[in-house]
């Protein structure tokens, strides 16, 4: 075999993207993809939001292909701040916030990790177990020791609150970073209640832990943009407005991929929120330095779409209806899958399908069952048993439920 350049081994392919390629090559008529973290309409097709369509029509005359500034579009940053924190809190934060447009949510997470590794210098970063696969990759890339905290209990099929709190209580040290998903937890679909968030915030505040909110599903989760940002706003109240002066602060990595269906346009913003008695301008100029060295200027088109929609009352109203369309369809598919699995007396507790929120569900299917689904039924999901509910529709939900029944009924593990 030919030796690899620089001795570099060929790494494993990305699981999700590898499975998607396999799905694309599958010629079976009834094939179903429950892999991708992207919305699909009732015909299984990508959906361009009507609000986005209208914004694009309005932008059609816009012939501006100039560079954005290094920080990105100021108009995007304004609407992104208001969407995340609400307009009152944004006003009150004033000089305590430094925001920069990023290469979508991934770029915001990466920019945060890069910045924090260099300047906050935490001993460790805590990421949920399980979590979005890229958290691990991003933090490994900046050389910070990664610890996982228990997030999901397979036993209760809910949040393992006591497990996570006990890890923070016993092992976390001041200025360690804790990554929290703001809503619609990927991959479990299980979120904390307000009371549980309050308990987590209390520990973050008391132990002076730095919180990184990953916010990839605001509005997409439930259709309620304010409800989906509740955790972030509560933490800002607790850690910034009512926090100790030596609390290190928090940040929010915001993505517009899912809630605008702008996956390929790469629109995101990173918001750093610093303690009230300190100024954020130095941190902002450091973020600009990082951006300059990495990509110079973020992409313009997706930002124009988002700021056009959120900056116009009529388009924003349409966008809120679009969010409702997406989240309602997901809810109805959760209901349908549950109903069909239960009516077939499929072993397992399927009520969780409806108590989980957002795009993803943890089915508790074993790897063996997942393999059978793919090989015999041409139904594709991640080996962890995570399904993307978006891949379900009226035409395939019965087929999927029957296949689940089959693999669960004949194979207990
Ligand atoms: C939890 C979480 N964070 C961040 C992202 C980043 O998405 P993007 O880079 O497309 O904005 C995703 C996408 O799946 C996600 O699920």
Averaged pLDDT = 95
Percentage of residues in DSSP E strands: 5-15%
* Domains, number: 2
- Total strands: 13
Runs with pLDDT <50, length 5+?
none
Number of helices: 17
Helix-strand pattern: HEHHHEHEHEEEHEHEHHEHEHHHHEHEEH
Bound molecules: pyridoxal-5'-phosphate
CATH architecture of the largest domain: 3-Layer(aba) Sandwich
Rg on CA atoms, Å: 22 Å
Beginning-to-end CA distance, first to last residue: 39 Å
The CATH topology of the largest domain turns out to be: Aspartate Aminotransferase, domain 2
Strand order of the largest sheet: 2-10-9-8-7-3-4
Name the CATH class of the largest domain. Alpha Beta
Oligomer: single chain
């Amino acid at each position: 075999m030919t030796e690899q350049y620089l001795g570099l081994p060929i790494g494993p392919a990305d699981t999700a993207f590898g499975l998607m390629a396999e799905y694309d090559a599958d010629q079976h008529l009834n094939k179903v993809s429950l892999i991708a973290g992207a919305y699909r309409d009732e015909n299984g097709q990508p959906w361009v939001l009507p609000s986005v369509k209208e914004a694009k029509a309005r932008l059609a005359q816009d012939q501006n292909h100039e560079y954005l500034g290094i920080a990105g579009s100021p108009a995007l940053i304004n609407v992104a701040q208001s969407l995340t924190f609400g307009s009152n809190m944004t006003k009150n934060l004033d000089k305590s916030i430094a925001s920069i447009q990023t290469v979508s949510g991934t770029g915001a997470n990466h920019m945060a990790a890069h910045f924090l590794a260099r300047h906050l210098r935490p001993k460790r970063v805590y990421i949920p177990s399980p979590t979005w696969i890229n958290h691990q990759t991003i933090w490994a890339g900046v050389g910070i020791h990664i610890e996982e905290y228990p997030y999901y209990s397979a036993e209760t099929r809910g949040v393992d609150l006591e497990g996570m709190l006990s890890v923070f209580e016993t092992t976390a040290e001041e200025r360690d970073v804790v990554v929290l998903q703001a809503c619609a937890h990927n991959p479990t679909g299980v979120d904390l209640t307000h009371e549980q968030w309050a308990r987590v915030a209390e520990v973050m505040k008391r132990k002076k832990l730095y919180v990184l909110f990953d916010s990839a599903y605001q509005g997409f989760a439930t259709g309620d943009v304010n409800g989906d940002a509740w955790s972030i706003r509560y933490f800002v109240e607790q850690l910034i407005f009512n926090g100790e002066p030596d609390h290190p602060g928090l940040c929010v990595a915001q993505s517009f991929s899912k809630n605008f269906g702008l996956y390929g346009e790469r629109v995101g913003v990173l918001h750093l929120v610093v303690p009230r008695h300190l100024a954020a301008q130095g941190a902002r100029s450091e973020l600009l330095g990082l951006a300059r060295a990495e990509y110079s200027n973020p992409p313009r088109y997706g930002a124009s779409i988002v700021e056009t929609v959120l900056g116009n009352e009529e388009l924003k109203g349409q966008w809120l209806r679009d969010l409702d369309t997406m989240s309602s369809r997901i809810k109805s598919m959760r209901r349908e899958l549950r109903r069909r699995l239960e009516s077939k007396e499929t072993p397992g507790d399927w009520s969780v399908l409806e108590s989980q929120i957002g795009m993803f569900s943890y089915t508790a299917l074993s790897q063996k069952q997942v393999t059978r689904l793919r090989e015999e039924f041409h139904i594709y999901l991640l080996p962890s048993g995570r399904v993307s509910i978006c891949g379900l529709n009226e035409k395939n939900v019965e087929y999927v439920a029957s296949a689940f029944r089959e693999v669960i009924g004949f194979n207990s593990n």
